[in-house]
Amino acid sequence: MALERTLSIIKPDAVAKNLVGAIYTRFESAGLRIVAAKMMHLSKEQAEGFYAEHKERPFFGALVEFMTSGPIVVQVLEGEDAVLKNREIMGATNPAEALAGTLRADYAETIDENAVHGSDAVESAAREIAYFFSDEEICPRTR
Ligand code: RTP
Ligand code: MG
């Protein structure tokens, strides 16, 4: 087990459905700690930069349009095996394939509007955290 950090986004569909608190409760109940958080409304450039790895994929334009369609809530989650644990809490990319009890099974309608993002590896987590947060904006536990 390793203490890790991962980047999580509550996407525009879930923010619009007023699910921020419900989703935070899932993270906290699983032992993940919120050590940084902010609400943002991404510009096209910010969304394109964040998802640059997907820029050649056929869904890229729709993904950027969706991610800029409304406010999001971005957080850094910290805990034992946080990257994998968050992916388990989220469930499969396609909500139709997500296990019962996962965020995407419970709160997402389609693969295009799937409620949450989570980093897929420790390396991508470090890059994604730095994309949204300066070191000073991350507030580790002190007590
Ligand atoms: P995310 O990055 O948002 O956490 O999702 P993920 O790792 O589960 O999936 P990824 O492959 O990184 O894809 C990023 C987002 O692009 C949309 N997508 N659409 N229509 C499609 O086939 C398709 N595939 C991916 C999803 O919204 C996915 O979350
Ligand atoms: Mg991904």
TrEMBL record:
Keyword Phosphoprotein: yes
Pfam family, one: NDK
Family: Belongs to the NDK family.
Catalysed reactions listed for this entry: a 2'-deoxyribonucleoside 5'-diphosphate + ATP = a 2'-deoxyribonucleoside 5'-triphosphate + ADP; a ribonucleoside 5'-diphosphate + ATP = a ribonucleoside 5'-triphosphate + ADP
GO molecular function, one term: ATP binding
GO terms under cellular component: cytoplasm
EC number(s) recorded for this UniProt protein: 2.7.4.6
Function: Major role in the synthesis of nucleoside triphosphates other than ATP. The ATP gamma phosphate is transferred to the NDP beta phosphate via a ping-pong mechanism, using a phosphorylated active-site intermediate.
Protein name as catalogued: Nucleoside diphosphate kinase
Keywords for the protein's UniProt record, in alphabetical order: ATP-binding, Cytoplasm, Kinase, Magnesium, Metal-binding, Nucleotide metabolism, Nucleotide-binding, Phosphoprotein, Transferase
Active-site residues from the entry: H117
Subcellular location: Cytoplasm
CDD domains: NDPk_I
Domain of life the protein comes from: Bacteria
Binding site for ATP: K11, F59, R87, T93, R104, N114
